[in-house]
Each structure stands twice: as structure tokens, then as C-alpha cells.
Amino acid sequence: MIYTIIDSPVGGILIAEGADGVAHIDFQDGDDPLTPDPNWVRVERLPSGAERQLEAYFRGERRHFELPLAPQGTPFQQQVWHALEGIPFGKTVSYLELAQRLGNRDAVRAVAAANSRNPLPIVIPCHRVIGSDGSLTGFAGGIHLKAELLALETRGSNPLGL
User: Fold this and answer.
1) How many other CB atoms are found less than 10 A from the CB of residue 146?
2) 126 is catalytic
3) Residue among 79, 136, 142 at smallest CA distance from 111
């Protein structure tokens, strides 16, 4: 696995990539930052260009990512993460709506748990999932970061004062 850490308007972001694609995106200023495995190799640039695409996202120049993705998870988590990819830029859905899209409205808590374990935030847009009452709930980088990402997507370019 190779990785890099980029500076962003929301702090350092670690991006790790293996032979199959991008496996981790982690907010280094979050509550529980990912520590790179000692066997990982730090590089300046990733073959996928993930760091350049994320930088363009933060500049308001990218709405979709074109990256090979390799998130590791259970089949149910993979199903939820795939459903997250269908949430349009700048839009939100509730955990209940996401569970309904997956065919089981009673799976709201399981959907929320899978959402919270998304190893590729931003690229797989878990920040676009909110409470049924419109409240911002749970996010690995913290609620303030979730709010900033949603604001970036709804305000257009240069929303974070870059």
C-alpha cells in the first residue's frame, strides 16, 4: 500500500492506494485518525491521481471522481457504499430513505452503521446522509466537517475561502 497526505481546507487528508485502487481516505484532524501501517510507503503523488481530484473538489472544480476504488467491507457495507455513490452532488438523503432504496426500511440502524464505516469519505459521499428531521448526524471527521462539505457542495466554487 502506498499513501500520501494532502493539506485541505478541512485539515490533513491521508489517501492510501493499493494494487486494486484507492482503499482509504482519512481525515487526519478527526477524532480517530488512521495511522499508516509501518509497511506502507509514503509517496508524493499516487498513480490514480486521487490527491489531485480531491484538491480539485475542494477548489469547487470537481463534482464526480474517476478513480479505481477498493474499499474493504462486508457485502452489506459494500451495498450501502454503492448506494451512497448514487446521491447527487449537493443533495442529501436521510438514513431512512437510503434504507428504503436498499429495499428494507427497517435496516436504518444497519445502514447508519455501514455508512459510518465508509473508508472513502468524500469520494463515496457518506456526508450526504442526514437524519430524517434534516439534522446533521454522525461523521468520522466530526459534524462540523460534514457541515463544511455540504456547504462546499451547495455554495459552488471557493466556498471555504480558498
Assistant:
1) 21
2) yes
3) 79
49 with 12: CB under 8 angstroms?
no
Stated length of the chain = 162
Scored b (16 or more CB within 10 A) or e, 88-119 reads: eeeebbbbbbbbbebeeeebbebbbebbebbb
Catalytic residue among 126, 129, 145, 152: 126
Quote the distance between the C-alpha of residue 26 and its chain's center: 8
Q: Helix H segments across 26-85?
A: 50-58, 75-84
Cα(115)–Cα(158) distance, rounded to whole angstroms? 27
Quick: pLDDT tens for 95-124: 999 999 999 989 999 999 999 999 999 999
CB count in 10 Å sphere of residue 85: 13
Higher pLDDT, 141 or 116: 116
What integer pLDDT is reported at residue 156 of this predicted model? 56
Model pTM score: 0.89
C-alpha cell at 19: 494494487
